[in-house]
Design a protein that fits this description.
The chain has a 9-stranded mixed β-sheet with strand order 2-1-5-6-7-8-4-3-9. The chain is built from 4 helices and 9 strands, in the order αββββαββββααβ. β7 and β8 form a beta hairpin. The chain is of the alpha+beta class and 164 residues long.
Length: 164
């Protein structure tokens, strides 16, 4: 079902390849699992900033990263600091998706060309039972709170965190 979401949104081709970064100075690393191997899809070096209030993740080149995501056939992006696994997000790159996710999602808004690390998709307020959805999202957020704080603190140390 997730592959359908990605295919519908981006018309991805499984023959496309994702080129891993050659050098990185950032300790933030995002990987996907394809077949039996994990592959780096972006690092903190690719991130311009992350807004803690809006959850927007701005890349140095959003269009380039959108193209990179088109080639991904995985269902999740795993976030690391160096080799320490922090958490995974469901990969849903489509603002056309009709699925509901109540855990962390890596979301691409096609209209605005913006990426988000959101607590769920879509906004809980548009769901039939927004209170129940928000409670589930809050619980899932609590489960990764320590790792999320490590992620945010690392971005702060690297000068890539803002709250506007």
């Amino acid at each position: 079902m997730m592959a359908f979401c990605i295919t519908l949104a981006a018309g991805c081709s499984k023959t496309d390849s994702v080129e891993p970064p050659t050098e990185t100075t950032s300790q933030v690393i995002a990987k996907v699992s394809n077949t039996n191997a994990e592959q780096i899809v972006f690092t903190g070096d690719d991130i311009l900033w992350f807004n803690g209030r809006t959850k927007e993740l701005r890349f140095r080149n959003n269009y380039s990263n959108k193209t990179m995501l088109d080639a991904i056939t995985a269902h999740a992006i795993k976030f690391y600091i160096n080799d320490e696994y922090l958490f995974a997000s469901i990969l849903c790159v489509s603002s056309l998706s009709s699925q509901v996710f109540n855990s962390l999602v890596f979301y691409y808004n096609m209209i605005e060309n913006k990426f988000f690390l959101a607590d769920g998709y879509p906004e809980a307020s548009v769901l039939p039972d927004p209170q129940k959805a928000q409670e589930e999202r809050d619980e899932n957020k609590r489960k990764i709170a320590n790792e999320w704080n490590k992620f945010v603190n690392r971005l702060k140390l690297e000068g890539k965190y803002q709250e506007l």
